Amino acid sequence: MADTPVYNASEPSGGDPLKVNVNTQFEGFEWNYTYIVFCGFIVWLIIPGIGLLYSGLARRKSALALLFQSLMIVAVTTFQWIFWGYSLAYSRDASPFIGTLKNFGLKDVMAAPSPGSAVLPEIVFCFYQLLFCACTVMIVVGGAFERGNMLPSLVFSFCWATVVYCPVACWTWNSNGWLYNLPSLDFAGGGPVHIASGWSALAYALVLGKRKHVDETSHGKPHNTTLVFLGTTLIWFGWFGFNGGSALNASVRAMLAAFNTNTAACTGVLGWVLVDSIKNRGKFSVVGACEGAIAGLVGITPAAGFVSVWLAACIGFLTSIVCALLQDVNNWLHIDEGMDVFKLHGIGGMVGAFLTGIFASQSVAALDGATEATGGIDGNGMQVGKQLAEVCAISAYSFTVSCILLYILKWIPGMHLRVHEEAEMIGLDRAQFVDEQIGERAILDELFVSSSSTPAHASVVNESLGISTGSKDLKM
C-alpha cells in the first residue's frame, strides 16, 4: 500500500509542477479521487433536479423562472466559492467559527493533500464541496417562489453563501470548527445543507410576505406532476454522490452510505404514502410519494455513514412520517412557504440529526479505516445532547442572519426583493423573460381559468399584457 500523502506547509500548493510531478504523491490513490470526482459529477444533477421539481410544483406562469434560476444559482455560487467561499469554510487556519482569506481566489488550492482527506488533491475536495454549497443555495431560494425578484435573489444567494453557509460549514466540517470538535455527528450535511436551508427559506418567505390572489388550496395542485417526478428522480440519483462521496474515499463506509441513501429514500416513500392513503381514504399521490423520497433522503444525510442498513430504513421511514404529519405547518405559522422547503429540509434535517445521535455506531464509522466516533447506540447518551446543540445553533443562526440579510437588501434602493403586484399576477415568466421564450397559451390559461380572479384583477392583467377586455381575437 502506498504511503499516505502528507501536507507540507512550506509548499501549500502541493509543489511546483515545473520542477516535480505533483501526481507522484497520490500514486496508488488514483482510484480514490476518481471516485470522488465522479460523485461530484452526479451531485451536480441535484441542481437541475431541484429546478425541475420547483418548476413542476409552481404554477405554469412562473415555471420557466425556476428553471432559469437553477442555472443562475450554480453560476453565482461557483463564483462565490472561487472568490472567497472555499477559504471561509475550509482554510487550514480557521477559527472555531469562520475561516480566513488565506485561500482567497483559490490561492494555493491545487495539488496538496486536502484538509478533508489526505488522499484527495485539494482541487478535487474544493470542487466536491462547491457542489454542496450550490445545492444548498438552490434549496433556499424555493422560499421566494412565484414572487421573488430574480436579480435580488442572486445577490441574496451570493451573500447568503458567504454569511450563512460558509460559517456553518466551517463549524461542522473544518477540523477547527466548534461543532466538529464538540463533536456533533453530521456525515453529509444535515446541518449545513438541510437545517440551514430550511430555516433560511422560512425567513425568505416571511420577509417577502404571502403571495397575492392565491386561494389556499392552489399550491396543492402542481401544474406538472411529470416535472415533479423527473426532478425527484434526478435528486435521488444525485444523492448517491452526495452521501456516497462524503466519506471522501472509496471505502466500505462510502458504499454503505450509498446503500443507506437508497434504503432511506425507499422507506421514506412508504411512510409518506402510508400517511397519504390514511388521510385520503385509500387514494395515493405521486407528489406525496416524491415528497416522501426527499424526506427520507434528508433524514439519512447526517447519518448515512454512521448507521447500519436497517437503521437507515427506520430513519427514512420516521422522518417521512413526521414531515407528512406536519403537512399544514405553513398554515400554523401563517407563512406562505409554498415549496415546503422548511417542512422537508428544515424539519426533516432536524429529525435526521436527532436520530443520528440515537443510532450512530462507532463500528460503522470505522468502516473507512480511519474515523473514530461514538454514538448513542454504543452507550454514549450525551451524543443526543450534542446533536440538539447542533440543531439549535444552526437553526437560530440561519434564521436570524437570513432575516437580517433580507431586510438589509430589502431597504437598499433599487433592490426590490419582491416583484410588483402586476408582475406577480401575470407570472414571473412574462415579467422577466423575452416573449419568444414563453408559451403564451400556458400563461393566459393560468390567468383566465382561475376562479379566484376578480374583474378588477383581470383588468390589471389585461392592461399589463396589452389586451383589450373587449377583444375576442386572442391568440390561444
Automatic annotation (TrEMBL):
It is a multi-pass membrane protein. GO terms for cellular component: plasma membrane. Pfam families: Ammonium_transp (PF00909). One of its GO terms (molecular function) is ammonium channel activity. It is found in: Cell membrane; Membrane. Keywords: Ammonia transport, Membrane, Transmembrane, Transmembrane helix, Transport. The keyword Transmembrane helix applies. It comes from the Eukaryota. Its main location: membrane. The chain crosses the membrane at residues 33-54, 66-86, 118-142, 154-175, 187-207, 227-248, 254-275, 282-301, 307-326, 347-367, 387-409. Residues 36-434 form the Ammonium transporter AmtB-like domain. InterPro entries: Ammonium/urea_transptr (IPR029020), Ammonium_transpt (IPR001905), Ammonium_transpt_CS (IPR018047), NH4_transpt_AmtB-like_dom (IPR024041). Belongs to the ammonia transporter channel (TC 1.A.11.2) family. This is Ammonium transporter. It comes from Penicillium cataractarum.
